[in-house]
């Protein structure tokens, strides 16, 4: 999967991963992170998620990175926001009060460009990547955010042989293998949501488990 794959998905309107509402896990579990208002929240592979606006409404500075310029155009247009746009290195930066979105390749984002986020929210980025890319994703994400920054991670798990991703299946064992050396990991929610998702039943899935993980510092 390369950059053109995702750009084509946006151009063709193949964005079934986008929710037309705030992800319900965000307001339900955000308080578990115990972060202060004005915290800098990093949302990788953010698309045009309404979660960005919810996080800003809580008083946070919201930073995101997204490959598709069309996704950012739609986000700001649909939210009635007028961004300032400027280029820095490999990125166009789209920003308005409380929101700064980097348009470009996540793997080219640097700590110097991003700054130091206080918390990371990953709802749809890890499950967007095939297994071969996820170790590199996890390593690069860890280079962008300090180990002291708590994280909220939402995943899906199913029998990968039953359906081609994205979204891809990410098991609890993989989450712990990728991040367990750096974080204390708590699985705070898990539920089989297949009955509520007809399109996944039609693809032949027999199980679709959605899980939420809370990452905290090993020193806490």
Task: Walk me through this protein's architecture.
The structure is a single chain. With 220 residues, the protein is an alpha/beta fold. The chain has a single domain, classed as Rossmann fold. 27% of the residues lie in helices and 26% in strands. Helix 6 links the parallel strand 6 and strand 7. The longest helix has 11 residues, at 134-144. The termini are far apart.
Précis, in short:
With about 220 residues, the protein is an alpha/beta fold. It has helices at about 5-10, 25-30, 50-55, 70-80, 110-115, 135-145, 170-180, 200, and strands at about 40-45, 60-65, 85-90, 90-95, 100-105, 120, 150-155, 185-190, 210-215.
Number of strands: 9
- Secondary-structure element order, N to C: HHEHEHEEEHEHEHEHE
Described by the principal axes of the CA atoms, the overall outline is globular
Report helical residue fraction: 25-40%
Strand order of the largest sheet: 3-4-5-2-1-6-7-9-8
Number of domains: 1
* Major sheet size, sense and barrel closure: 9 strands, mixed
The SS-based structural class is alpha/beta
The whole-angstrom Rg is: 17 Å
Q: Give the terminus-to-terminus CA distance.
A: 37 Å
Would you tell me which CATH topology applies?
Rossmann fold
- Number of separate helices: 8
Unreliable parts: none
Percent range for β-strand residues: 25-35%
Mean pLDDT: 92
Q: In CATH, what is the homologous superfamily?
A: Vaccinia Virus protein VP39
CATH architecture: 3-Layer(aba) Sandwich
Question: Which CATH C-level class is it?
Answer: Alpha Beta
């Amino acid at each position: 999967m390369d950059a053109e794959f995702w750009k084509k998905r946006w151009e063709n309107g193949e964005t079934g991963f986008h929710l037309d509402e705030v992800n319900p896990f965000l307001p339900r579990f955000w308080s578990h992170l115990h972060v202060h208002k004005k915290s800098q929240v990093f949302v990788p592979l953010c698309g045009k998620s309404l979660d960005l606006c919810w996080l800003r409404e809580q008083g946070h500075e919201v930073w995101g990175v997204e490959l598709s310029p069309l996704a950012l155009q739609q986000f700001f247009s649909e939210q009635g926001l007028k961004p300032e746009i400027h280029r820095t290195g490999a990125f166009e930066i789209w920003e308005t009060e409380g929101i700064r979105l980097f348009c470009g390749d996540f793997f080219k984002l640097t700590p110097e460009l991003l700054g130091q986020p206080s918390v990371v929210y990953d709802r749809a980025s890890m499950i967007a990547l095939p297994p071969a890319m996820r170790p590199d994703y996890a390593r690069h994400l860890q280079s962008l955010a300090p180990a002291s920054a708590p994280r909220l991670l939402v995943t899906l798990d199913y029998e990968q042989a039953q359906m081609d991703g994205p979204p891809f299946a990410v098991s609890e064992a993989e989450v712990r293998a990728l991040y367990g050396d750096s974080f204390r990991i708590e699985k705070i929610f898990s539920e089989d949501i297949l009955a509520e998702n007809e399109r996944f039943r039609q693809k032949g899935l027999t199980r679709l488990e959605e899980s939420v993980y809370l990452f905290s510092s090993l020193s806490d």
